[in-house]
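Reading a protein record of the kind used here takes only a little practice. The record below shows the convention in full.

——
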Amino acid sequence: MNRRYGMVYMGSKEQILHLIRYIFEREYKKRYFIDLFCGGFSVSNFALVNSNYIVFANDINKYLIALIKAILNENSDLKTAKFNWVSREHFEEVRDNPGKYPDWYVGFVLNVWSFGINQRHYLYGPDRDFYKKALHNALVFDDFSEIKKLKELEDFTVPEIIRNVDYKRHYTKRTAFMQKFKKYVKEHEKEYPVLKLLVQMQHLQQMEHLDAIKRAIPHQNRLNLSAMDWLDFYNSLPDVILKEAFIYCDPPYENKSQYQFGGEFDYEKFWQWFRTCPYSVYVSSYEAPEDIKPINFDYKIQLLDNGDLGDNKPKKKAVENIYWNNKGDAEPTFLDQLFQK
């Protein structure tokens, strides 16, 4: 399960896709898979690539859905935008005035260039903006003009064999480039402590992960994308589809960081719907009301409040539970029978 299926996203399910497969095994008789909170698209993409389900993927964040569509349609403007530096000022301009830009571009900027993918705060601190931009231009465009202005980097060089690689075509250049830079940092960390803040190029890593969504391109004929409130979307689906479907929900985690769009999430309304929905519904969550019990669980690296990137501190862990509303005609799997779930 090491292959990536979606973009880097708050609460991404990349690390529990084996539990998603477990759900698929229980629901193999169904024709439709409904992903009410598709987020970074990893679960929906996993369904497209690893099953024959017709997939309905929905998220209230219209900019995110527009970005997914742009990736799947191989939008030429996105191909260019991916490699351009986005300044703090431009990030805030896009965040505060989204109507001035194409929806896919808003989704791109707010996801790739925000801290912790929170879509609110710029990715880098003001003490490292210029340095990061200098490294970006050197790596992506082989432009060392800004690096040469920095005393801390005046001796930094990279071999011609690396400089001659086109990063736009070969993302592996980032790894080779940054290995060389990290060696330089180690040699100069006492003289220039600021260099220790620059050993990750998070925006490029997050941008590269967008390409995982392209795995869905051959399967687009089975994909339906929507940008609606979760309940409105559910209510828009006809019974003829719902009767042959199972529903997966990954709502915002309660008492955790909230997303930029959609306002306050009504957990009481959601769990009441879960209890009464006549169709098979699965929810991935760290917690649920006391009367709702999990059917399976696994440890998942918590993607929220993880501290500083690259700080090498132990990351928090939380139990990721899968809850089922006991509706529909799911078939117990071997694991269900073994553990009497």
Observations:
- Residues 243 and 279 are 7 Å apart (CA to CA).
- The first strand starts at residue 32 and ends at 35.
- Residues 172-188 form the longest helix (17 residues).
